[in-house]
Amino acid sequence: MEQKHKSANLPSSEEHGGRNESRLYTPRIFTPSNRLSFGDTFLQTVPERGNNAYWRWGDDNRFPYALALLARRSTIHRRIINDKADYISGKGFTMSDGLPKLHSLVEHVNPSGESLRELIHKLAFDRALFGNAFVEVVTDEQRSFLALFHQDASRCRVSRDNSAILLHHDWSRFTEKEVQTIPLFPNFTTGEDGNLHAIIHYKDYEPMFSHYGIPPYIAGMNVSAIAYKTDKWNISRLDNSFQLSGVMLLDGGVDNEEQADALARAAQQKFAGKPGQVMFMIKDCDENDSSRFIPITSSNEGDWKNLHDQAVGDIVIAHSWFRSLSGLDYAGGFSSDRIVHEYEVALNTIILSAQAELLEPLRKVMAMILDEDTSSLQFINMPPSRSKPAYMRVWEARKADGLDYDPDDRQQQQFLSQISSDHSV
Fold first, then answer.
1. For the chain, which end, N or C, has fewer CB atoms within 10 Å of the first or last residue's CB respectively?
2. Higher pLDDT, 311 or 322
3. Beta-sheet strands, E only, within 243-307
4. For the chain, how far is it from start to end, CA to CA, in angstroms?
5. How many CB atoms lie within 10 A of CB 199?
């Protein structure tokens, strides 16, 4: 596991100020001489680069940036994405004894020291946010090691012939010289580090979208924006010290626009709680100064609150998630029974299937390269509120949940309290 890996940590546009003049990673160069035979797998070269080398992700190829920005602005939307990633990544893994390579890989999947759970958490987060996730597989011709690296989905694009993934640190400033190309697993190719590289692409199915997946909350994007805008409206009111908006009618004469602007700015500093909240009207003065402020009152605060509450409910529905698992119903009282019940529903309808979809391709990679039986590798799932007594053994808890169990498995003979202590995060 001491192999050098040059391409795992790609610099982001934020790290370099979003400019291309910074030092960038060295792009891999693939030629026909790079084709190698890897068992039953044929290592293919990547397609020629050009203007049509990849499929755009969205009309302007920046759809992932829009999704990431929305997730940073909408609190409830972000909370649900975080919670889904936490629950899907579980509390660790259990596996049979006598598998030293697999045990080592679960603890450290790459030279950066990431565990398999940390890797799965990043994949689950990208899958929940973008509907797509990418993991790079690195090994050598002798299969002497295996390393797995998460690749930021926003940096990845599918090649035009659907055989490879193109990586770039900032697609808004795309240049061909800064592109990395990695073939899709099970095809491998050699990189400049001398190792074999492939990439796994996870994507959520959506009709009419064959190159990229669509996030499950796609129907709730508008309501996510509503929740963000209602929060922003409250911030604006707070910045304005909750002063009323209105029209300021001023007596005064001006000869030109410069004088009018100067008068408006002076009036803003004196009368307005926040510039832009008051409209100023200047009229010629007469014998009596009749300057006055005409407030614009509004009684629609209840409508704004109802709109926000409805948007929050619609966001939860769009995510196919549960309110109590995202802390949305604590104001009405903490109900551990409801949390446990909804967790059980989420476990059997969403979490287990998502875990299987993420783990199965990795199991195939591990079995092929490590040459060990990976069928015993399983997630450890625990509810946010304890629903089973701590003195139950793992196989007893699995039996109670209707899952496969083996009373003779030493890992499943451990007590839940012991696992809770060993895998607490």
1. C
2. 322
3. 246-251, 278-283, 292-295
4. 25
5. 23
How large a percentage of the chain has pLDDT more than 90? Answer: 37
Q: Kindly report the pTM of this predicted structure.
A: 0.69
Any idea which residue has 């003049």 for tokens? 21
Predicted confidence band of residue 224 (pLDDT cuts 50, 70, 90): low
CATH 1.10.287 fits 245-296, yes or no: no
Q: What is the mean pLDDT of the chain?
A: 76
Residue of 384, 307, 371 lying closest to 343 (CA atoms):
384
d(CA 136, CA 362): 10
Output the pLDDT for position 341.
85
Residue 378 phi, psi dihedral angles, 5° rounding? -140, 150
DSSP secondary-structure letter at 378?
Answer: E
List pLDDT tens digits, range 192-222.
889 999 999 999 998 888 899 999 888 877 7
Question: How high is the pLDDT of residue 393?
Answer: 85
DSSP state letters, 116-148 = HHHHHHHHHHHHHHHSEEEEEEEE-TT----EE
Question: Domain spans of the chain?
Answer: 32-217, 245-296, 394-425
Closest residue by Cα to residue 234 from 185, 182, 305: 305
- Per DSSP, the residues of 27-89 read PP---GGG--EETTEEP-PPPPPSTTSB--SSTTS-HHHHHHHHHHH-HHHHHHHHHHHHHHH
The tokens for 82 are 């975080």
Sign of the C-alpha dihedral computed for residues 250, 253, 258 and 262 taken in this order: negative
